[in-house]
Amino acid sequence: MAKNALLEIKRNLEAHVGSKIRLRANGGRRKTIERTGTLEEIYPSVFIVKLDQESHAFKRVSYSYADILTESVEVTVCNDEGQVRITHVQQ
């Protein structure tokens, strides 16, 4: 079941490669990190986000699909029609 959920998350992200996204990640000790950038690449286990240069010290960050599954990371795609949140589908 978890394998199918990870595959579904990966497929959802593949449809948005090159799109502007907003990340909300758990930073530990009740800290939430918010970042904006472009979904740059999709790999079998991780996805890469190129961050906006003016507001972040790092150029790129990577997260695993399991981070979305466990809700450690929330990905919101910002497109012309509005915002779409990428989550896992519970069955």
From TrEMBL:
InterPro entries assigned to the protein according to its UniProt record, in alphabetical order: Protein_Veg
Pfam families assigned to the protein according to its UniProt record, in alphabetical order: VEG
Name of the protein in its database record: Veg protein
Organism, as annotated: Paenibacillus glycanilyticus
